[in-house]
Structures are given as structure tokens and as C-alpha cells.
Amino acid sequence: MNKTFKFTTDKPTCNCGIFGISGKGNDLPITTYFGLHALQHRGQEASGITKAYKTDDNISKFKTKKGFGLVADVFINSSMVEEDKDNTTISIGHNRYSTFGSSDSRSNVQPFVVNYQDGNLALAHNGNLTNAKFLRRELEQEGAIFQTTSDSEVVLHLIARSKGENQIDKIRDALEQLEGAFSLILMTDEKLIGARDINGVRPLCLGKKGNSFIITSETCALDINRAKYIRDIEPGEILIVDKSLPENEQLASYKLEKKDKIKHCVFEYVYFSRPDSQIFGSNVDKIRRKLGKNLALNHPVIDEDGDKVIVMSVPDSSNTAAIGYQNQLEKLGIASKLEIGLIRSHYIGRTFILPAQTKRDIGVRIKFNTVKGVIENRVIVLIDDSIVRGTTSKQLVNLIREANPKSIHVRITSPPIYNPCYYGMDFPSKEELIANRFESIEKIREHLSVDSLEYMTEEEMLDSMIDHTPEEFCTACFSGNYPIPIKDLEEKLIK
Description:
Blueprint: E1 2-6, E2 17-22, H1 28-38, E3 46-54, E4 60-68, H2 71-74, E5 87-96, E6 112-116, E7 119-129, H3 132-141, H4 152-161, H5 167-176, E8 180-188, E9 191-196, E10 205-209, E11 212-216, H6 220-223, E12 228-232, E13 237-242, E14 251-255, E15 264-265, H7 267-272, E16 278-279, E17 282-283, H8 284-298, E18 309-313, H9 319-331, E19 336-338, E20 342-344, E21 351-355, H10 362-367, E22 368-370, H11 372-375, E23 379-384, H12 391-401, E24 407-412, H13 434-437, H14 441-448, E25 452-455, H15 458-463, E26 473-474, H16 476-479, H17 487-490
Parallel strand pairs: 15-26, 18-19, 18-23, 23-24, 24-25
Antiparallel strand pairs: 1-21, 2-5, 2-11, 3-4, 3-5, 6-7, 7-8, 8-9, 9-13, 10-11, 10-12, 13-14, 16-17, 20-22
Helix pairs in contact: 3-4, 4-5, 8-9
């Protein structure tokens, strides 16, 4: 008898990836498809694309394709991403990982599409609204009927019910009422719109491919399409792309009236974003190398027998930090070598079919295997970006231990995680976090059965944020200092 096994990761789970393009030609949906491919790391539960096109009699129509699974699975044999025979003018896409709302309901898969008094409207959202339940309750009391359990649908209802004089005023009015984290893309019959919350928690940027403008989460989605990065969408900015206007009038920028301090999510640099992306004005690769260097400066490892220390990453998110760590060990005069000691399989999905008698620890063995010749009888420094529950970390250490190292030392490029996130990261409950289950780092070390375990301090981590000041970042998951009000918690609406 077989059973389904769901692979869970010992990481904070990423939020969502969004992509939008406005232009003319038959490549807008396929460009969106490739953009979503590049953003697959931001969400693997579901994917969707909505396009706006003109009928022969110049009537605007929306067409949507979405479903559960990876981008390639959702759009396999789909006419949506074949040569576009429709007169498409705008296309937006979304990769989902749920942080709010049921993950197994198809109605929660974005983009969301509605038709209201001002025409068609579609939405793709990255982030988490901290007053969504409060707003939803008010809207329901006014007669609004919701089709999903997602916080993103609140935005559509606010726009539809706004008393603003025109469509843009209604969108501004709706966004002014939101609290929390949002980088979102809206698509109307004529316009592509990108917006960020006033704190700039999640990334969003503007690019250009030929005569088409692109708005997307990360620059890697521009690179795959050979598009040029122009700039970031600013915190609190609403950027309008209207290709129906003359070329010098196609971009218009508005600011939300609310103002607040910038509070980027530091985990975008530590773990979420791809190392080949540029976000918040800096290269992710550059900052992760700096994280590794500072980790080595403050938490080095030596082999007392004089042999070279073997530095290994937990692939793939820690690869760059491991390079920085080993380079800094050499500068400190500590003999070391960067090695690929763990091989990761890239061919696993979210679930597998396993024989009923299979042991529970098969998950880590499906994902990783060791290079025994690299590890045997060597001092191993394992670089990772975070430990959440600790379950996968413990299994991984056991796997490495089977290769007979001299000793195993774990180094983490972030502080211990003590608190949940309400701004778009999916952490387990506070009680499940390993840093809360054990009273000290020493107790965590004992639980993981490693020879030493050291985390970066918050100060060390923030010191690695090149070209930024420490005040620019949200560190609530480490410190418990939440910079943005969480109205849903204050109203005791979150269970």
C-alpha cells in the first residue's frame, strides 16, 4: 500500500511572486510565463496568468488560466502560453504560497478577476495585510459577499466600493486603508498598475522589454526575458502604465498620503530572494557574501590538528554565504576549503508517493545526499541561513554524521527565530519554533547533536546589509519588535 508524503522544509516559507507586462504583440503571456518561472522560488503551491485583450469590435476581455502546482505543470499544453492569437495588451501572473487563507481552495489561487462598474479588474498580491480581517468584517457588514478566504480579495472590494471620482482615485482610496505588507499588481482594461506599501516590506521593480513595461517582484524575472531594469517601485508609490497614451505620457506615479519609515524584510536578503536578483537597491549575492564574511569574523572554526576546515553550504540558499565564510577564514589565516559536500535533488515536488513502510526521515534523503569523500575524517562547517523547527536540520546532521566527519559545526547567517511574522512569511506557531522550545542555543546544539552551533547576532546581521542602515529593516521575527500595527491581533481576530 502506498501513501502520499508531503515534503516540509525547515525554513521560513516564502510569500508570493508577481509579474505584469503591458505592451503590444503576441508574446505578453509567454513573457509572463517565463517571468513566473524565474519567480518559482517565491511560491510553489499554485500559479496563474490573466491577460487582457481586445475583440474584433474593440471590446476589452479578460482570460485567465490558473491551477495548483508549479508553473510548468499548470501551463503544460495550455493555449494561454502558446503563440498568442488574441490582441493582448496586458498580462499579469502570480505564484502562490499561502500565508493567509486556505491553501487547498482553488478560489484562493490568483490572479483574482472581477467585473464592476468601471470595467474589468485583476489583482496579484505579494505580502500579508495586518488589518484584513478587520476590513473584511466591516465590508461584510455593509453587504459585501466574499468568494475567497484570501486577504487579497479585500483590496478588490475596497476599490469597487470606493467613492473616488475615477478609477485611479478609487485604487488610491483603497490602498490608503490597507495596513501591513503589500506589493501588488493590478490590471484594468487599459492600465497596468504596481503599488507598494508605505514601509516597502516586499520588493517590487519596474523594467522594460522593447516597448513593453514590466512590473515584477525581482529582477531575475526581467533577466530571463532579456528585459532592462529601470528602477524599484518606491515604498508608498502607485505606478500606472497606460500604453494607450503617447510614449512620453505612458508612466504616471502617485504617492499614498500615509507616510512611515522604510522597513524592508531582512529575510529577503538572508533567504527569500534569488542571489542573482537586485532588490531594495542592492545585489542579493553581494549581501549574502558579506553575511558569510561577518559570520566567519565573529564565529570562526579551526581544525586543531592543523588540517583544512571543510566549509559546506546547505544548498541552494546558503551557497553564496558559504563562499564568503570560507574566503574570510583564509583572510584570518585559518586553513580551509570550500567543498560541495551535500548534493540536492531539484526534481522533487511538494508531495511523493511512498511505500507505507518507509521511514519518516525519508524526506531529507529524498532532497539531499552526502559526498562521503569530502566529509570523512574532516572538520565540517555547515553554513545555513536559518533554523525554524529544527526537524530537517537534525535529520541533515544525522545524514552528515553517517559519512564519518571528525566533527560538525553549524553556523547560521541570522539570529534565532523567536516570533511569527505577520507581513508575508509563513512561520509555524511560536511554540513550534526551535528557539522557543529550548531555553538556550546550547540546548539547541545538544538537540541537533553537533559539536558547536553559533548564530549571527542581530547586530552582526544588520552590519552585513551593505548600502543600508540598520533602521531600514524589519527584524520582528528575531526581536519581537513589530514596526507595523497588527490590527487583526489587536482586535483578537486571529486565533
